[in-house]
Amino acid sequence: MPPQGQPPAWVLDESDAVTEDKDVATPAPEAEKRKLQIVWRNVTLFVFLHIGALYGGYLFFTKAMWTTRIFTVLLYIMSGLGITAGAHRLWAHKSYKARLPLRLLLTLFNTIAFQDSVLDWARDHRMHHKYSETDADPHNATRGFFFSHVGWLLVRKHPQIKAKGHTIDMSDLLADPVLRFQKKYYLTLMPLCCFILPSYIPTLWGESLWNAYFVCAIFRYCYVLNVTWLVNSAAHKWGDRPYDKNINPVETKPVSLVVFGEGFHNYHHTFPWDYKTAELGGYSLNLSKLFIDTMSKIGWAYDLKSVSPDIVEKRVKRTGDGSHHVWGWDDAPSEQKVAATIVNPDKTE
């Protein structure tokens, strides 16, 4: 079992596994409240991107060579890990440490994903945790599924995001020369890694440039975007809250399947410093954990932070919704018994 670790320095006020470092953004005065300001350039770009992705998906299943399909899946895995194991677990939450070879590899994977530089991604994600479900949360899920999924990228940011941005300490990541290099040359590295090379490499085994571009670049890129966005939308809406019933994030296994273990979101927002982002120890729904554990075995990852079962159980009993397996029927919360009885009328106390 990985050594028990403390939450990262930027997470404030963590005790007995409290929910998360969440400040409350000051509500905007009535005069400041405004309608969403749509950024039509972004709307246009995303519409054409998704049309191209649908066409690329058609080519993936009907026209592309089998080697191109395998290459596309590999790109999906690499870019996905660049977000989950890299920008999220390593850099945004500092839930483990990585030696230079792994930091270089994950930075490359992250650049293939094209979801902004690590510095920008981590800043927004730290905002999301510190001001979760407030106006200072970039993808505030209380504003609806569409907004938290993609709408937040189609409108101008809420003024609270800029007002609270200075409270996010990024000095730890700015001290990393690898991340500074990526940020400095991002506008050169990103097109090369995300679009140009993925379109060119398949031509080496005879694939057409047309197919390679729409399948390996556009379809793959748009697919990774949408499964990542599911963590912001679906994983804040549909599912159980076994660890903290007082927050929006939920446990959703389908999202974990496609986003390499990121769908156990009620656990993650309750224990954000755990490198597993889940209580589960298996790998079937947590490819990112498998990757990090593998890197740990070869010495590239170390100081993996986790939460003891005792702390998890105490937190489940204190704030969970009763859906966790530690609850027996006799000591489950009364509201959980009522819900179970409605589903199964034969169930009695």
TrEMBL record:
<keyword id="KW-0479">Metal-binding</keyword>
<feature type="domain" description="Fatty acid desaturase">
    <location>
        <begin position="66"/>
        <end position="272"/>
    </location>
</feature>
<dbReference type="GO" id="GO:0004768">
    <property type="term" value="F:stearoyl-CoA 9-desaturase activity"/>
</dbReference>
<feature type="transmembrane region" description="Helical">
    <location>
        <begin position="43"/>
        <end position="61"/>
    </location>
</feature>
<keyword id="KW-0472">Membrane</keyword>
<feature type="region of interest" description="Disordered">
    <location>
        <begin position="1"/>
        <end position="28"/>
    </location>
</feature>
<dbReference type="GO" id="GO:0005789">
    <property type="term" value="C:endoplasmic reticulum membrane"/>
</dbReference>
<dbReference type="Pfam" id="PF00487">
    <property type="entry name" value="FA_desaturase"/>
</dbReference>
<dbReference type="GO" id="GO:0005506">
    <property type="term" value="F:iron ion binding"/>
</dbReference>
<feature type="transmembrane region" description="Helical">
    <location>
        <begin position="185"/>
        <end position="205"/>
    </location>
</feature>
<feature type="transmembrane region" description="Helical">
    <location>
        <begin position="211"/>
        <end position="231"/>
    </location>
</feature>
<keyword id="KW-0560">Oxidoreductase</keyword>
<feature type="transmembrane region" description="Helical">
    <location>
        <begin position="73"/>
        <end position="92"/>
    </location>
</feature>
<dbReference type="InterPro" id="IPR015876">
    <property type="entry name" value="Acyl-CoA_DS"/>
</dbReference>
<keyword id="KW-0276">Fatty acid metabolism</keyword>
<keyword id="KW-0443">Lipid metabolism</keyword>
<keyword id="KW-0275">Fatty acid biosynthesis</keyword>
<keyword id="KW-0444">Lipid biosynthesis</keyword>
<keyword id="KW-0408">Iron</keyword>
<keyword id="KW-0812">Transmembrane</keyword>
<protein>
    <submittedName>
        <fullName>Fatty acyl desaturase</fullName>
    </submittedName>
</protein>
<dbReference type="InterPro" id="IPR001522">
    <property type="entry name" value="FADS-1_CS"/>
</dbReference>
<dbReference type="InterPro" id="IPR005804">
    <property type="entry name" value="FA_desaturase_dom"/>
</dbReference>
<dbReference type="GO" id="GO:0006636">
    <property type="term" value="P:unsaturated fatty acid biosynthetic process"/>
</dbReference>
<keyword id="KW-1133">Transmembrane helix</keyword>
<comment type="similarity">
    <text>Belongs to the fatty acid desaturase type 1 family.</text>
</comment>
<feature type="compositionally biased region" description="Basic and acidic residues">
    <location>
        <begin position="19"/>
        <end position="28"/>
    </location>
</feature>
